[in-house]
Amino acid sequence: MIAKKKIFAIIGSTRANSSNLRLVTKIKTLTKDIFDLTVFEGISSLPHFNPDIDGENPPTTIANFRQKIAEADGVIICTPEYVFSLPGSLKNAIEWCVSTTVFSQKSVGLITASASGDKANEELQLIMQTLETKFNEDTVLLIKGIKGKINDQLEIADPETLANVLKFITAFHNLLR
């Protein structure tokens, strides 16, 4: 039996039961045989990035967050777009990792699921390239109009979106090999 890959999923939204959280929860269900997926929902509990306290003894929440990324075989980031950009909470979380190598050569799947999402999608890719992560065009997914495409029962109502999510899962699994 092949061991499941450890995946750490970061949700960029701070909203309870956000479309992004529902989407990643659906991905967790769809991948239960190949991934051991842990969803990080504590993005709003991370302190504001401050380089003055990012030394040998960063805040415990930050040390734990970084360790989860380091221990994972891969990371999925799923985010909405706020004002043509990444949500501040997600950018903050990523900034806490810049002084480390936790993302260096880490396989990542990048999902932007929002009303539009184009700018946040571009920004996320640029940031992840800067951090030297591994991803490709098939492990980047942009889902426009997400609220109308996944319901509270975690059903992806749009067949094209479901097909794209399944393609993303396959590509991400291949990237991890």
From TrEMBL:
Entry-linked SUPFAM superfamilies: Flavoproteins
Pfam families on file: FMN_red
Gene Ontology terms: cellular component: cytosol
Domain NADPH-dependent FMN reductase-like: 6-134
GO molecular function: FMN binding; oxidoreductase activity
Domain of life: Bacteria
PANTHER family named among the record's database cross-references: CHROMATE REDUCTASE, NAD(P)H-DEPENDENT FMN REDUCTASE LOT6
Protein name listed in UniProt: FMN reductase
Species whose genome carries this gene: Pedobacter planticolens
